[in-house]
Specification:
The complex is a heterodimer of chains A (196) and B (595). With 196 residues, chain A is mainly alpha-helical. Chain A has two domains: 32 residues; 154 residues, no CATH class. In chain A, 47% of the residues lie in helices and 7% in strands. The relative contact order of chain A is 0.11. In chain B, helix 9 crosses helix 10 and helix 11 packs across helix 12. In chain B, the strands form two sheets. Chain B has a two-stranded antiparallel ribbon. A two-stranded antiparallel ribbon of chain B has the order 4-5. Chain B has 595 residues and is mainly alpha-helical. The two termini of chain B are 22 Å apart. In chain B, strand 4 and strand 5 form a beta hairpin. The chains are: A mainly alpha (196), B mainly alpha (595). The interface between A and B is large, with 114 and 142 residues. Strand 3 of chain A pairs parallel with strand 3 of chain B.
């Protein structure tokens, strides 16, 4: 029998260089050449070109004037993009039921006259804790509150939601959704123009 | 199920089916060493590798030599990965200055990646430097997959060779799998994923200012300090696309980030999700065709493929149904769980909006049918039935497509058991693909089938008796038992997915699960190679009137029943203590309260 240690060592080294250095370097080169924005995190910028968000990473919104996104279970604060995490609460865990009750109460307190059922995605934590989207139903549910607190007609807010809603990719894939950060950025602009 | 969901599942299955023959044929050509197919310059690189390593490509190995080469190669890979984590603090490409990984966690992770399990006791963005991810984890994503494929090819040679004392050369099989199959497809997939928004950069984490500053969850003591911090968001980045591509293709499944493919940077769009799901089953499914091609009878490959597909498809529909039904305990609340054109509805805790119910439940089935283990939703928060499906798919032995190479060699072992059972019924010496199946092969096959359940049930029983074992559980009652059972099912079948509420990063779990991953990987590979060696040495017997044909619907059914029967007899009692009881409690509560 041949001694396998020498071939194993050299093979490991050579294939490590190939798959662990050359391969990721090639992919990075391609990414940074042709898709620089996407490969660097799909960042958004303010007027001074300072990055103030990513299209793909949600942010926490608690002010009732803004659209609220999915609850986030990241620690120690919601939407911690350096420590993604779901809640991992099981379906029969009393802690989950208590959290959901509290979230329902928060929505009802912020908009007491809204008697529609609350869409499920608004009261359940996302898998990543960074979900940038809510369902169109979840955005529609919040229109009356946003309109009242920002003193803009519900029709105008509804149009904003419809404009930003994304359909299924290619008409088939995934689920329809609305990006909460983009929605709130557009809302801020709308409010600013209204006040001017 | 709604029409949109049905359409997405069908689209997935059709695209997968369309890839099986062309990819299977291509891989067959690679293993037949068809030099017309491959670029000459790349072949030059291959021979250069052999030259510098002192490998004679014409040399043929006995099964024991093959196993020794495989074990040595994997052991060295494990050591390298361990020390890379151990020294990451002083090595370059660590922009976030992450400290050395704890020894028990580093050992667990090294074992986990070398055994193609990719169990994540670590959190990618919080524990692993860019260098460790790239030079350690990505490399083992390739090499562990290639090792599995090599063992499969050796087993196939056992059937196709006659009166031979050798089963091929491990270095060739492993190198060819890496160079001509895994690497080109990973490159292609990485490129496609980058277009969808998967990140690929060596820059440090990006700090961005928030539109609205906000408060931490609730920790009054730290409040002053933290509330100042939450005016900005630190966004984890890294060389993600290159690792995700091979993580999906090589049935590895260890994520770059903690939440794996639920993270928007690992899986940003429904299209990236489809590509990643396809990559999970692509190679395991196509290898069925390769198998048929290499033994000279493609019907045999299609028979195994059919058995796997027929076991897979019902699982998809049960899983989607369970998740779409939502959580009956929420029916009392003022919330809407119904599917509509404006929301996916259903059990949305631990799921992402862009994937909704259908793509999360479908992924959960695919990732556990294959021994991939990546997730795009948190399985711990699935409904009891929705969570039982992935658990049982692992417990069936990861043979419903299974890992690259390992799934098919597992299924071939089940086929050997199936012809043995048939042989007992009709009173003839069993044979499979022209080879007599005798006592030695059956002993080895029994080992392959019995080792994983022993590790899973033994490990679960032991851990649940220990205080430190129970302390790791997050959810109360039956669901807590499910978390432990899931962890051992995952490690004992080299899957790697988790009910992630379990705090598995402790000395007990890291060492115990590490040991189990080693045994369930190499404790199965060695008997499989022994079968290969024994079969290769036999002569081939011609097909006679008493031969059981193994490409017929009858045999497919027999094979499926064998897989299901072994799985059910072993695991139903354990499942009854976890997901089944939880399901009864959940629905029972509802009916008792008249809702």
């Amino acid at each position: 029998m041949l001694n396998p240690i020498k071939p194993a060592l050299i093979m490991l080294l050579a294939l490590t260089v190939l798959t662990g250095v050359i391969y990721p370097a090639l992919v990075t080169l391609y990414a940074q050449t042709f898709f620089k924005d996407q490969a660097s995190g799909s960042l958004l910028y303010d007027a001074q070109s300072v990055p103030n968000g990513s299209q793909l990473i949600g942010q926490a919104f608690t002010n009732p004037k803004y659209f609220w996104g999915r609850p986030s279970a990241t620690q120690p604060f919601p939407y911690n993009a350096a420590a993604s995490s779901g809640s991992n609460l099981g379906p029969t865990n009393p802690a989950l039921l208590a959290l959901i009750k509290a979230r329902i109460a928060a929505f009802q307190a912020a908009d007491p006259d809204n008697h529609f059922l609350i869409p499920i995605d608004l009261v359940t934590a996302s898998a990543s804790g960074l979900d940038p989207h809510i369902s169109p139903a979840a955005a529609h549910y919040q229109v009356s509150r946003i309109a009242r607190l920002n003193q803009i007609s519900p029709k105008r807010i509804q149009k904003l939601v419809d404009d930003l809603a994304e359909a299924r990719q290619w008409g088939i894939l995934g689920e329809p959704r609305v990006n909460v950060l983009l929605l709130n950025r557009a809302l801020t602009q709308l409010v600013a123009t209204n006040e001017r | 199920m709604n029409e949109q969901g049905f359409l997405q599942i069908m689209l997935y299955l059709l695209v997968l089916l369309a890839c099986v023959k062309p990819l299977g044929w291509y891989m067959g050509k690679v293993y037949q060493n068809d030099s017309n197919l491959l670029n000459r310059r790349f072949c030059g690189f291959e021979s250069l590798l052999y030259r510098i390593s002192g490998i004679n490509p014409a040399y043929e190995m006995r099964w024991t030599e093959y196993a020794a080469a495989l074990l040595t190669f994997n052991l060295l890979g494990m050591l390298a990965l361990y020390f890379l984590q151990h020294w990451q603090a002083i090595l370059p490409l660590n922009p976030m200055h992450l400290p050395a990984v704890n020894p028990d966690l580093a050992l667990n992770t090294a074992i986990s990646f070398v055994t193609n399990t990719n169990w994540q006791a670590y959190s990618g963005e919080a524990n692993m430097s860019y260098l460790t991810q790239m030079l350690g984890l990505t490399v083992q994503n390739f090499l562990s997959a290639a090792s599995g494929m090599a063992v499969l090819v050796a087993l196939i040679r056992g059937f196709s060779r006659r009166n031979s004392s050798t089963i091929g050369n491990f270095w060739l099989d492993m190198t060819r799998s890496t160079l001509y199959i895994l690497l080109p497809f990973a490159l292609l997939l990485a490129i496609l994923l980058i277009g969808q928004g998967v990140v690929q950069t060596f820059e440090p984490y990006q700090s961005v200012t928030l539109q609205e500053s906000h408060q931490p969850h609730s920790s009054p003591a730290e409040l002053a300090e933290i509330s100042q911090a939450i005016n900005y968001q630190s966004i984890a980045l890294g060389p993600v696309a290159s690792q995700i591509a091979i993580k999906q293709l090589g049935t590895n499944g260890g994520g770059f980030f903690n939440v794996n493919s639920a993270h928007p940077f690992e899986n940003p769009t429904p299209l990236s999700n489809l590509l990643e799901m396809l990559a999970i089953l692509l190679i395991p499914a196509a290898l069925c065709y390769t198998f048929g091609m290499l033994i000279g009878d493609t019907r045999q490959g299609w028979a195994l493929f059919t058995a796997m597909a027929l076991l897979l498809i019902p699982m998809i529909f049960i899983s989607v149904w369970a998740e779409q039904n939502g959580n009956p305990l929420f029916n009392a609340f003022h919330i809407d769980q119904q599917f509509s054109n404006l929301q996916s509805g259903g059990s949305m805790e631990g799921k992402e909006t862009r994937f909704g119910i259908v793509n999360s439940a479908l992924w959960a089935v695919l990732t556990t049918a294959a021994s991939n283990g990546s997730v795009n939703a948190m399985l711990d928060s699935f409904t009891p039935i929705g969570g039982m499906i992935p658990m049982s798919l692992m417990q069936l032995g990861e043979v419903i497509f299974g890992g690259v190479g390992s799934g098919l060699y597992g299924m071939i072992v089940f086929a050997i058991v199936a012809v043995f059972i048939a042989g007992l019924m009709i009173g003839r010496t069993p044979e499979y693909l022209g080879k007599k199946i005798e006592a030695f092969e059956m002993k080895m096959a029994a080992l392959v089938i019995l080792i994983p359940p022993l590790l899973v049930l033994g490990g679960t029983a032991l851990t649940i008796m220990l205080d430190s074992g129970r302390a790791a559980i997050l959810n109360p009652n039956a669901h807590g038992f499910s978390e432990v059972l899931y962890a051992f099912s995952s490690a004992g079948n080299n899957n790697g997915s988790a009910f992630a509420g379990l705090s598995a990063n402790s000395l007990l779990y890291n060492l115990l699960l590490g040991g189990i991953m080693l045994l369930s990987r190499f404790g199965l590979m060695i008997p499989v190679l022994a079968i290969a060696g024994a079969l290769a040495a036999k002569k081939s017997i011609p097909v006679g009137p008493g031969t059981l044909s193994t490409h017929t619907p009858l045999f497919v059914l027999l094979l499926m029943l064998t897989v299901l029967m072994v799985g059910a007899l072993t695991f139903v009692p354990a499942l009854a203590l976890g997901p089944i009881i939880e399901h009864l409690q959940m629905s029972g509560y509802t009916s008792l309260n008249g809702r």
